[in-house]
């Protein structure tokens, strides 16, 4: 119980502070704060976390592969589900594909698994962030927007990480300290943004939104377990993948839906419903993630058994 309080308490308190700001007359400048997180803090955290802890390319590749497969599985099942339900693919497929691995997921895995969680979580998150700002944007825009991805500092921080890691390039202390300081503001800023956004989103159709929210959670659980088995993930890797895959619908979906005026209030409804549902389920999700991380059962044996 104490462990759960230590993990979930800081997330709930900081999110609540953001929510109170959103409901009060003292408003956070969310557009500026969001731009600061995306353009400065996120690239800095990715570079700082993946270079300072001397992570190997194998670890980066494993977590990136896990993130890509979770996205692929969620996209495939989500597409078929929306077709069966008669829902708009353009409006709701991104909501089923892209979990809130940043605002909510990264703080959660860091509090749950410590420095190792930060390392693994960032290696997973950068794939989600890249996909959100390329594929997600393209779906809402109705056209491919590769040039938008090339303007994101995120992609260049990843290239820098790969170069430093592959060629063992020493990073000057001034860069280490600067990126560590800038990256340190990402987690609290993301949680404040999450709370403020929940307080200010204009929602509609909360009944159907709850259906999408439940599907998102189920897709997260299913895709995570399939990937953990396929890649035979153990320890913190399994727990981190499970938590990040089961996060609620990312707020960036609402931002993009509003930007391109494609059912923004309905998408906002799914974000709110999904976030509330996930908060309710957080103790169970964290417990399952910890159980997966401590399990010594070789998940790949399931595949061997089924194939025998």
Automatic annotation (TrEMBL):
Keywords: Cell membrane, Membrane, Transmembrane, Transmembrane helix, Transport. Pfam families: Mem_trans. It is a multi-pass membrane protein. GO terms for cellular component: membrane. The chain crosses the membrane at residues 6-22, 34-53, 59-80, 92-113, 119-142, 154-175, 181-201, 208-230, 236-256, 268-290. GO terms for biological process: transmembrane transport. It comes from the Bacteria. It is found in: Membrane. InterPro entries: Mem_transp_PIN-like. Signal peptide: none annotated. This is AEC family transporter. It comes from Yoonia ponticola.
